[in-house]
């Protein structure tokens, strides 16, 4: 047995070279130990979208995200439809005091507020609302389609 410590942040060449193999081990572990289905969202099905009505991806997915938020709130938290309308969604999870910033030594996506969207078969099944800051990532909220609760997307999101 050989154990290596491999720098993941910033990603070293060793990390990059072994990423896919490590990911496959992780995925197999999740399927065998935690009984995750093989169609659980993969790394290619997660999109990081800046929270900005100027961003085309954010604008094009806004209605789907807002509808999913309402479904989640009513099912999981027993909110009424008026408690989780588009205005409430925007106020709670889209309006942010953070301003987008692209520092030369920062992450490629920049700093600011983001919706980390989990897509499956062409539709959003979960959204993690996160703030990416110079020294941390802050998880603001996560909502998901209750029909996919068997995927444990909250746990998956936290680990990711």
From TrEMBL:
GO cellular component assignments: cytoplasm
Coiled coil regions, renumbered to chain: none
Entry superkingdom: Eukaryota
Keyword Transcription: no
Keywords: Transferase
GO MF annotations in UniProt: arginyl-tRNA--protein transferase activity
Signal peptide start and end residues: none
Keyword flag Transferase: yes
One Pfam family hit: ATE_C
InterPro entries per record: N-end_Aminoacyl_Trfase, N-end_Aminoacyl_Trfase_C
Residue ranges constituting the N-end rule aminoacyl transferase C-terminal domain according to the UniProt record: 66-160
Protein name in UniProt: ATE1 transferase
Origin species: Polioptila caerulea (Blue-grey gnatcatcher)
Lineage of source species: Eukaryota, Metazoa, Chordata, Craniata, Vertebrata
Gene that produces this protein: Ate1
């Amino acid at each position: 047995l050989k154990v290596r410590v491999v720098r993941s942040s910033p990603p070293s060449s060793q990390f990059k070279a072994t990423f896919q193999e490590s990911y496959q081990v992780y995925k197999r572990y999740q399927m065998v130990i935690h009984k995750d289905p093989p169609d659980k969202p993969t790394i290619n099905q997660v999109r990081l979208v800046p929270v900005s009505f100027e961003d085309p991806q954010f604008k094009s997915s806004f209605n789907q995200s807002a509808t999913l938020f309402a479904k989640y709130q009513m099912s999981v938290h027993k909110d009424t439809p008026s408690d989780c309308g588009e205005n409430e969604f925007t106020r709670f999870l889209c309006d942010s005091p953070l301003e987008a910033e692209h520092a030369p030594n920062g992450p490629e996506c920049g700093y600011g507020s983001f919706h980390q969207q989990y897509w499956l078969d062409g539709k959003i099944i979960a959204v993690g609302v996160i703030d990416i800051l110079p020294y941390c990532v802050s998880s603001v909220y996560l909502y998901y389609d209750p029909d996919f609760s068997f995927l444990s997307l909250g746990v998956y999101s936290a680990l990711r």
